Amino acid sequence: MPELPEVETVRRTLESLVVGKIIKEVDVSWPKMIKKPDDSNVFRLQLNEQKIHNVGRRGKFLTFHLDDYVLVSHLRMEGKYEMADAEEPDKHTHVRFFFSDDTELRYKDVRKFGTMHLFVKGEEQIELPLKQLGPEPYNDPAFTGAYLQRLFTKTNRDVKTVLLDQRAIAGLGNIYVDEALYKAAIRPDAVASKLSKKRISTLQKKITETMKNAVDKGGSSVRSYVNGNGEMGMFQLELNVYGKEGEPCRHCNEEVMKTVVAGRGTHFCPRCQSR
Question: What number does CATH give the domain 4-132?
Fold first, then answer.
């Protein structure tokens, strides 16, 4: 699933491609993808003649800001936005946005897990799915060591489970949690409430540092992720533990291990991240 750095990269690409365009028509071939309004035909009609003023992001959600509405889009596992080429849309194209300048934006999703919600402006912040999201670990002044300290004090869950909880921190996923915990020398299964204030402060800094670096590199193309121009991210070249099971740790040469934490495949160095 694309995490914050990948979604931010998609956002930047889309902003350069669609801002200023006016939606002339929308075609929805998989109505189940439209979660609000209930009727995909109403969704189509409400978007008609709407101009895209900017493309934002909240956690892992894209937000298209229009004249009267905000379209909230989640890519889930395999979702992608692409500007149309001369080819006919394939079977994985489920939503098509036709613009007044005769260009077209397509939403493609192999697994059909992606979602779209259309809100009247302002309502998106007080309704699901955005209202439940915590602060972001990237350019959000609310994400501080003190915030993380308060968060960890309240729970006996392991640290990885807490970091993956979008209600606690928005945008973090499996890849970047593993990488940040490695850089902070904290085991993924460590009990959050038992971490010292100093280690929590270090973790907060390493999370922010990891996310900013990943955004600068365009995200990680570890599976099928590409941005809106079909370009791969390059942060996967800097991964230390994620996907490195059985390989030597870059720092100590110990073999990177893989286990399951929070129901997710989890990578760590047993020496650098000792108990």
Answer: 3.20.190.10
Catalytic residue among 36, 57, 58, 60: 60
Catalytic residue among 2, 129, 135, 188: 2
DSSP state of 237: G
In the chain, domain spans: 4-132, 145-268
From the list 259, 209, 233, the residue with the least C-alpha distance to 3 is: 233
Ligand-binding annotation for 92, yes or no, is: yes
pTM score of the predicted model = 0.92
Which residue, 188, 156, 152, 189, is CA-closest to 168?
A: 152
Q: Is 111 annotated as a binding residue?
A: yes
Q: Is 264 a catalytic residue?
A: yes
Q: What is the pLDDT of residues 134-166, one digit of tens each?
A: 999 998 999 999 999 999 999 999 999 999 999
Distance set, CA 64 to CA 101, 126, 152, 212, 269 (Å):
18, 16, 34, 23, 40
CATH code of the region 145-268: 1.10.8.50
Annotated catalytic residue, options 12, 199, 258, 264: 264
Query: Across the chain, where does the E strand assignment appear?
Result: 23-28, 34-36, 54-58, 61-65, 69-74, 80-83, 93-99, 104-108, 115-120, 257-261, 264-268
Q: Would residue 21 show up in a list of annotated catalytic residues for this protein?
A: no
pLDDT tens for 183-238 read: 999 999 999 999 999 999 999 999 999 999 999 988 765 444 444 555 555 677 78
Name the region of 2 (left: φ>0; alpha: ψ -120 to 50; beta: rest). beta
